[in-house]
């Protein structure tokens, strides 16, 4: 007989399919099991559209089996009216015999209330199956609701001799291989927003888009205290919205939003603004001053560091890795990638 863990693992696999399209909702997968076999499955495919439980139920050909079946889902079913009706109501309507849940939803409108509603309607509930794995899957969602800020990823690349870039840079400088660059574009597609400082814009003129892969472009953020950047830089094109944190004005011009900010408390001001805008995750791509500002303020959750074969002999020193656990090491066409998580 297959275990609860087996079916929750299947839910996690399904849930991951939604990573590019469901934010600010969590990734959720669902399977419906009768006589130890999956008779229906689904996942949350797009923000504002049907949830995983609804999609799974719709795939069951013989609905008369539902009241003798177990519904598995990696996150507690919602019990409130949002963009869609409560999933608990649909589960109760079909009178499932049991619901098995990976982890409790941290959102205050749910957070245990979904479980209680099911139990109050005589449905057996089991929860906490592969709990930590389920939480890690939706760590952006959990951090957002727990800490009232986005999940923060710091990413940079350094040379073999520990420099992040040349001191004098007359043209854009790429530290990593094409394969690593493609991977970074895939990362961008998974996050809600991406941040760089003014000097990075001047040095590299980045687009901060996902042009090397499929997916949505993140919202672009740039720190430009005195609004010294002109509109000819790529970050001001029409491929994505851009937020400019500055000390001069608040204004909206086309898809560029200027936000007057207190630079005495800059990083927390930025994070508060992103929280208000329901932005669940942020990837910080440079430069060294900006990355170090997050490290110094102890505001980071994950670090992704490339070490390349290039030797610069002189340049801008790489930020130092703080005391954080390394969870993964990979080689990508001679680039060494280290991932650190709290």
User: Whole-Å distance between the termini?
Assistant: 36 Å
Shape annotation: elongated
Cα-atom radius of gyration: 23 Å
Largest sheet: 10 strands, mixed
Uncertain runs are: none
* Element pattern in H and E: HEEHEHEHEHHEEHEHEEEEHEHEEEE
Task: Give the number of DSSP strands.
Answer: 17
Classify the secondary structure makeup into a structural class.
alpha/beta
- Helix count equals 10
Mean pLDDT: 95
Q: Name the helicity range.
A: 25-40%
Strand content: 25-35%
Side-by-side strand order of the widest sheet: 11-12-10-9-8-13-6-14-17-16
Structure summarized in a few sentences:
This protein is of the alpha/beta class and 342 residues long. The chain has helices at residues 4-15, 52-59, 87-93, 113-120, 131-137, 139-147, 178-190, 198-204, 266-276, 288-296; strands at 29-34, 37-43, 70-75, 98-103, 124-127, 151-158, 163-165, 193-197, 219-223, 242-246, 251-253, 256-260, 281-286, 302-307, 316-317, 325-332, 335-341.
What labels would you give this structure?
342 residues; alpha/beta; five-stranded mixed β-sheet; 27% strand; elongated
Q: Can you give a write-up of this model?
A:
The protein has 342 residues and is of the alpha/beta class. Helix content is 27%, strand content 27%. The chain contains 10 helices and 17 strands. The strands form 3 sheets. It has a 10-stranded mixed beta sheet with strand order 11-12-10-9-8-13-6-14-17-16, with helices on both faces. A 5-stranded mixed beta sheet has the order 2-1-3-4-5, sandwiched between helices. The chain is elongated and about 70 Å long. The two termini are 36 Å apart. The model has no long low-confidence stretch (mean pLDDT 95).
């Amino acid at each position: 007989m297959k275990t609860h863990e087996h079916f929750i693992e299947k839910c996690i696999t399904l849930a991951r399919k939604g990573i590019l399209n469901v934010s600010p909702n969590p990734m959720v997968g669902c399977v419906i099991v009768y006589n130890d076999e999956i008779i229906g499955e689904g996942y949350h495919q797009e923000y504002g559209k049907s949830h995983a439980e609804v999609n799974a139920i719709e795939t069951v050909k013989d609905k008369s089996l539902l009241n003798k079946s177990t519904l598995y889902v990696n996150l507690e079913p919602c019990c409130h009216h949002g963009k869609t009706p409560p999933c608990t109501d649909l589960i109760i309507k079909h009178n499932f015999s049991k619901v098995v849940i990976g982890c409790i939803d941290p959102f205050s409108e749910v957070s245990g209330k979904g479980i209680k509603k099911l139990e109050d309607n005589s449905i057996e509930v089991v929860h906490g199956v592969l709990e930590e794995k389920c939480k890690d899957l939706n760590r952006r969602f959990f951090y957002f609701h727990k800490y009232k800020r986005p999940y923060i990823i710091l990413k940079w690349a350094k040379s073999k001799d520990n420099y992040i870039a040349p001191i004098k840079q007359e043209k854009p400088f790429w530290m990593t291989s094409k394969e690593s660059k493609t991977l970074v574009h895939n990362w961008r597609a998974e996050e809600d927003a991406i941040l760089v400082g003014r000097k990075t814009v001047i040095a590299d003129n980045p687009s901060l888009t996902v042009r090397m892969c499929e997916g949505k472009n993140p919202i672009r953020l740039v720190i430009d205290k005195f609004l010294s950047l002109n509109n000819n830089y790529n970050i001001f094109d029409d491929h994505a919205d851009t937020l400019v944190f500055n000390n001069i004005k608040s204004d909206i011009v086309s898809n560029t939003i200027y936000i007057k900010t207190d630079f005495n408390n800059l990083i927390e001001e930025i994070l508060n603004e992103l929280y208000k805008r329901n932005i669940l995750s942020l990837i910080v791509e440079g430069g060294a001053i900006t990355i170090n500002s997050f490290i110094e303020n102890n505001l980071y959750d994950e670090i992704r560091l490339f070490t390349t074969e290039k030797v610069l002999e002189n340049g801008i020193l790489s930020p130092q890795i703080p005391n954080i656990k390394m969870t993964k090491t990979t080689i990508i066409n001679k680039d060494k990638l280290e991932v650190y998580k709290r």
